[in-house]
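Anyone able to model this chain together with norvaline?
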Amino acid sequence: MKHLLKLLDLTKEEIISLLNLADQLKYENKHGIKHHHLAGKTLGMIFSKSSTRTRVSFEVGMYQLGGYPLFLSSNDLQLGRGEPIEDTAKVLSRYLDGIMIRTFKQEDVEDLAKYGTIPVINGLTDLYHPCQVLADLMTIREYKSTLEGLKLCYIGDGNNMANSLTVGGLKTGMKVTLACPKGYYPHQSVLDFAKDFDCFTLTEDIYEAARDADVVVTDVWASMGMEKEIEKRRKVFAGYQVNHELLQAAKPDVMVLHCLPAHRGEEITAEVISQHPEIYDEAENRLHAQKAVLVTLLKDK
Ligand code: CP
Ligand code: NVA
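re: yes, here you go
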């Protein structure tokens, strides 16, 4: 594994080994065992979109691993004034040991990896959110002890989270059912990947999707960069809410996950969030899962 650009690039074994390492690093972290695997290493963190969890967990994660994180807002970089990705990649590769990038186009992340010579980590694009889904899988394993054979249900927009969850869930042996309105389906490359799996279902019926689910996941109706569409989307997604009534269709011990930030009263009710504190374990696990990614990509490089 040279980069983390999207989960489609990883084998099942690579995903499981990241999750195992994440569990170990979490254990060490909780027991005060130092793990300075990245002493002397630097990580540039390019942000073209807002972030709370991704920024803080990567920054703290690098610190805990003995390395040094640099927060680079794209507004302050020459990238924001039109310097090409190619030159940015070549130059940053001369200073840094790794780059994490949160941006709009997946192509920009892929180009950063193509033109640079150091590992690149996708911290969210319009298309994928692989770091979040690694944390989600880690959290599901913590609560359910396994991933194999569990039913993962996603309700809402066929966005970056839907895309990465579909790939991550199917690769690790889960049954994946998505309920998305027509016209808001996951990306075609994800549907092409999923079509070979009998345990993949795409429906417009949220109750069918949630039936006997072990895990129910949702995400915002309008992702970053889509703010102008919010009024239209509120109408399209009105029936796609994770609420008490919907969860009656799922297993009695269903987990609920949300990558956060959440819009209470839209894709999820305040009541459901308050009854499912695993959402905050999921947020915490961003730290541990990403440390596993950092160690895997940057150690010994
Ligand atoms: N879930 C997530 O990526 O959160 P941030 O946007 O706060 O980084
Ligand atoms: N789908 C959301 C995820 C935020 C972490 C977005 O892209 O804004």
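The chain has two domains: 7-129+286-298, 130-283.
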